[in-house]
């Protein structure tokens, strides 16, 4: 059995992780932390029974102490918290899957701009494996620290990576718009995310300032084999969960619709957690919400391709992708505990 702990189990991603790991046939949950729910049983907050339901939440500090008795710790914490906790956990010999952005960006000089703090662990950033299995599976098996991708970054990268790798589009032309359910903002009790503010509305937010932008750039640059800067605009959907992303790119001269479809089939046709749609029009949040799946589809004319992606921001965009990564870390079937 894989012995696991969760630090930050009272956020939306942490709650989803708890639920998934409770049903995983090869994971034993040793502890869960929440400073706000300390002393309460997990079963009082989630519809879980058995061993996990009987566990009591402990403080984050007690979770670090308990980590010496587990094999892997999930950090479902803000980036600055993960930045402080990950080195302590790694020093205990524990593997870490971090759901924050604390170790995603390889250039630590970008952290003050995008995450508003100075990064002090450049050596860990360099050693961290980026946990998007469909694109970077080979680097995960031996990882000690996994930087679980952001939800927008997962959808965006999956939608354009095959096009860039096959050189079917102009790398300078990539424009991505994506819309997420309100849970993507976390469990913040703020006016901007209250029901009265989001209901029956749709708006862009953090325009040209969203922290997933450099993460998307980093991934697609790897696949393009050259520096790429995308234009990324996130939007807030008046729904609980789910992401729909559309990437618009200019086709390279002479590229056909058949080549575009072939690129997606070659990249993802055998992927167990990706479903390919017949076109961008066919991609829907409703097809993937509450599942670990990503749906992808592309449509094009003689000069433009639109690649659409849909996923659940709390699952493939966070918790189920973290479980997918842990399965790879410990040599388990990649979809175990997920399907």
* CATH fold annotation of the largest domain: Dihydrodipicolinate Reductase, domain 2
| CATH architectural arrangement of the largest domain | 2-Layer Sandwich
**Biggest beta-sheet profile:** 7 strands, mixed
N-to-C series of helices and strands:
EHEHHEHEHHEHEHEHEHEEHEEEH
**Total number of beta strands:** 13
Helicity level, as a percent range? 25-40%
Count, helices: 12
CATH structural class of the largest domain: Alpha Beta
The overall pLDDT, averaged over residues, is 96
Total discrete domains: 2
- Runs with pLDDT <50, length 5+? none
**Beta-strand proportion:** 15-25%
Shape, per Cα inertia axes: globular
Rg value: 19 Å
CATH superfamily of the largest domain: Dihydrodipicolinate Reductase, domain 2
Structural class: alpha/beta
In which order are the strands of the major sheet placed?
Answer: 8-9-7-10-13-12-11
Q: Whole-Å distance between the termini?
A: 19 Å
């Amino acid at each position: 059995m894989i012995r696991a702990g969760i630090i930050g189990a009272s956020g939306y991603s942490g709650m989803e992780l708890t639920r998934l790991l409770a049903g995983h046939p090869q994971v034993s949950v040793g502890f869960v932390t929440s400073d706000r729910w300390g002393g309460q049983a997990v079963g009082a907050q989630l519809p879980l029974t058995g061993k996990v339901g009987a566990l009591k939440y402990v403080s984050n500090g007690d979770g670090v102490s308990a980590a010496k008795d587990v094999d892997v710790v999930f950090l479902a914490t803000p980036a600055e918290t993960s930045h402080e906790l990950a080195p302590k956990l790694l020093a205990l010999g524990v593997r870490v899957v971090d759901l924050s952005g604390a170790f995603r960006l390889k250039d630590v000089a970008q952290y003050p701009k995008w995450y508003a703090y100075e990064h002090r662990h450049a050596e860990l950033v360099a050693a961290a494996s980026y946990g998007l299995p469909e694109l970077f599976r080979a680097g995960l098996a031996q990882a000690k620290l996994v930087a679980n991708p952001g939800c927008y970054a997962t959808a965006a990268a999956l939608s354009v990576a095959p096009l860039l790798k096959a050189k079917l589009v102009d790398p300078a032309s990539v424009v991505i718009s994506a819309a997420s359910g309100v849970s993507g903002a976390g469990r913040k009790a703020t006016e901007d995310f209250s029901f009265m503010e989001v209901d029956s509305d749709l708006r862009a937010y953090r325009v040209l300032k969203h922290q997933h932008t450099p993460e998307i750039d980093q991934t697609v640059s790897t696949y393009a084999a050259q520096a790429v800067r995308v234009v990324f605009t996130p939007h807030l959907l008046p729904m609980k969960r789910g992401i729909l992303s559309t990437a618009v790119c200019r086709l390279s001269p002479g590229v056909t619709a058949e080549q575009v479809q072939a690129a997606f089939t070659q990249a993802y046709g055998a992927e167990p957690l990706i479903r390919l749609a017949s076109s961008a029009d066919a991609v829907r949040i409703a097809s993937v919400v509450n599942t670990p799946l990503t749906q992808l589809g592309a449509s094009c004319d003689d000069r433009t391709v639109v690649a659409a992606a849909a996923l659940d921001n709390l699952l493939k965009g966070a918790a189920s992708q973290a479980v997918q990564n842990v399965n790879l870390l410990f040599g388990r079937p990649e979809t175990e505990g997920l399907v």
